[in-house]
Amino acid sequence: MRTLLAGLFAALHLLAQTETTIHGIPPRAAATDYQVRAQAGQLTLAAEFLGHSIPTDANSIVSEEYVVVEAAIFGPAGAKATLNASDFALRINGRKQIIPAAHFGLTFQSLKDPEWGPTEAEKQKSKTSVGGSGGGQNDPPPLPPKMPIALRRAMEQRVQKAAFPEGERPLPQAGLLFFQYRGKADGINAVELYYTGKDAKAKLTLQ
């Protein structure tokens, strides 16, 4: 419950910020450069399934709570479109339940940076922080050192920057979509991305 509330508070805080902090990611040269494509009216949707990996401009971050889709929207020259992450949903392994796209802020509690690790001094401090230096055999295992707040905030900002852009935007645009799924990525055999825009719909079979 605390984790859910923390995520909701994070999302509400981020929603209060301006959209200029969400830049998305640079779209690839053409829709054909993505894993799959589909037509939705005058728009061309393109996407690629990334599993639990979250690529950012610095490195890849991991979330065991969410899976990620890199999505892009192309259109005629000079076209604009009103974009919204909530227009997307995901079906995994043919299940009846369709997973709606989540606000990027809800992923923050589960983010991990595979390149970050505690120093030897931090590891030693963690070992001796529970039960003192002479802890007994029945002492609980020490808690792993936490990532420094400054590094965690930087990681969250990278995810926010890469999230799917929203509002009226010139095309093409691209960004990351997040869908809550705690299962292992290697257990995913089928992935379908659904788009329900204002004037068009599309389905993309990603896997």
What topology does this entry show?
Elements: H1 2-15, E1 36-40, E2 43-51, E3 53-55, E4 60-63, E5 66-74, E6 80-83, E7 88-92, E8 99-100, E9 111-112, H2 120-128, H3 149-162, E10 167-170, E11 173-180, E12 191-196, E13 201-205
Antiparallel strand pairs: 1-2, 2-5, 3-4, 4-9, 5-11, 6-10, 7-8, 7-12, 12-13
Describe this structure in words.
The chain is of the alpha+beta class. The chain has one domain (2-115, 142-205): Immunoglobulin-like (Sandwich). Helix content is 18%, strand content 32%. The protein contains three helices and 13 strands. It has helices at 2-15, 120-128, 149-162; strands spanning 36-40, 43-51, 53-55, 60-63, 66-74, 80-83, 88-92, 99-100, 111-112, 167-170, 173-180, 191-196, 201-205. The strands form four sheets. A four-stranded antiparallel sheet has the order 1-2-5-11, with no helix packed on it. The two termini are 33 Å apart.
Task: Please state the average pLDDT score.
Answer: 84
As a whole number of angstroms, the C-alpha radius of gyration is 20 Å
Looking at the structure, the CATH topology is Immunoglobulin-like
**Order of helix and strand elements from N to C terminus:** HEEEEEEEEEHHEEEE
Quickly count the domains.
1
Strand order of the largest sheet: 1-2-5-11
- Sheet with most strands: 4 strands, antiparallel
* Cα separation of the termini: 33 Å
So what's the overall shape? Answer: globular
* CATH class division: Mainly Beta
